């Protein structure tokens, strides 16, 4: 058989590693953007060791907000929530890493900031449930759906971070 250069195997390993990695959808809502919390929030995910694979600032339409929150359409706050999400710029992101869906929710804290622990994003920076500054997918299925709703496949950037071997060993 023809010799395959070692570099090709390495590349395949990296791709396989990246393909297995979990991804989640995280969004800084209009209140978090307006309050100047973008760098603070991005930095918490970055310092933890998660990898940013997509990011964009957009003002979603109300119809788009309704799609994003379709699971909550029977709730009394649904209309106000969709008005709010579409009221200004939202920073939409995809973060990648082992356990990022569940641990991302831990970094974010409980839905109601009154119940979020100090040290979490909502615990540290929010006071009421209607202005809790950040969204994070709550499971693998929603993560997949939300990433597909907010991003085109070509907007997701696959790359190897030099820090990976220090984060994962
Ligand atoms: P999470 O964002 O933590 O996944 P949910 O999916 O239950 O929480 O709710 C989505 C969003 O709806 C919350 O982040 C919050 O902004 C809003 N919300 C939830 N409950 C209420 C409520 N009782 N009144 C107003 N807004 C609410």
TrEMBL record:
Catalytic activity as recorded in UniProt: a ribonucleoside 5'-diphosphate + ATP = a ribonucleoside 5'-triphosphate + ADP; a 2'-deoxyribonucleoside 5'-diphosphate + ATP = a 2'-deoxyribonucleoside 5'-triphosphate + ADP
GO terms classed as biological process: nucleotide metabolic process
One GO cellular component, as annotated = chloroplast thylakoid lumen
EC id: 2.7.4.6
Active site positions, chain numbering: 135
Keyword terms, alphabetized:
ATP-binding, Kinase, Magnesium, Metal-binding, Nucleotide metabolism, Nucleotide-binding, Transferase
List of residues binding ATP: 29, 77, 105, 111, 122, 132
Q: Which residues form the Nucleoside diphosphate kinase-like domain?
A: 21-158
Q: What is its main location?
A: plastid
Physiological role: Major role in the synthesis of nucleoside triphosphates other than ATP. The ATP gamma phosphate is transferred to the NDP beta phosphate via a ping-pong mechanism, using a phosphorylated active-site intermediate. Shows the highest specificity towards GDP.
Q: How does it assemble?
A: Homohexamer.
Q: What is this protein called?
A: Nucleoside diphosphate kinase
